[in-house]
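Entry 14. Structure prediction run on the chain below.
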Amino acid sequence: MSQTLNQLIELAKEPSSAKRRELLREVTDIFMAHPEDVSGPELVLYDEVMTHLSGEMEAMVRAEIAQKIASTRNAPLGLLRKLASDQIEVAEPILKGSKALTETDLLHVVSTQGQGHLKAVSQREDVPEAVSYVIVERGDDETVNVLLRNDGARLSRQTNEAVVARAQNSPALHEAVVGRKDLPVDLMNDMYFVVEARLRERILQENAALDPTVIELALSKSRNRVAIAHGSFPEDYERISTEVEILRNSEKLTPSLLAKYMRDPNQTYFLVALSQLADIDFLTARHLVEKREIDALAIACKAAGLEKALFLTYAMIMLSSEENAMGKAAEYGRLYEELPKETAMRTIRFWRLRRVEGHAA
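Output returned:
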């Protein structure tokens, strides 16, 4: 093989581009016949010759060579790295399938190349955590979607947090984020307030299957990331909280009073009362009301063990400006009855984390 290679190297001096193209193909075919047998100085020589010749070839030929060497673990690394940073039509098969590229090689590509290269790396059988982090940082929504849908992509806690934070304002990512099998359960529950009903149901199903010890472990690992996620506390929060708590302790916090609070120009009264009765934090209560999150409200009320009638009072008040408010409230009432309390309690525990972190911030 060495004698043949040396003869080909002599032919590399041939000035004809057509002959040099054929020479590159022939050298590549000779190498690929038994790549596992090539090592040491001979491998270095192949690398030098193939890299030199490929640099003079048009993209179609470089893509052909990339396709051939992408499958071998013993590929000439100089050539492999050069082609991996070539235009995407050349680089794609190598970025998707070459097992000869190191993590450092992949980090260089995803740190310096465009979305096509990032997307190709995102489809690898195994994507290291550090590489996934850079892809999430630099990739657009389409690229990040590809990464998240790849079960072989490993994401660190830090990367998962970045993905969930980004998904709060990127509906295009919702399906892929909620579909991650390795997404920490506390981060999964952070997605509840921003995804559509179908995905909310999937989150509730995940919660229903959780062991309580898993929940405790997830909460213990959580960071102070939520903090005042939906805004700051109003100036009269402390004063009104004290007033409402006195009413609650004296059993004067009734549904009719809640209805009155809902129509009060100062909404703090209703939100404080809701948070105290449903045992959720004030900021989450405000989010539920302002965004008309009635299904989320059902979870809060069911977890707190509140009567269906009280929940329906909330729902009617929130639906008062809509057509067929009574019919819609009745439908939510049926959903309330069907919601298992255990599932609601598992979900509400993640929401209560917002209270702890919000006050700690």
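The CA atoms of residues 36 and 211 lie 49 Å apart.
Filed with the rest of this week's runs.
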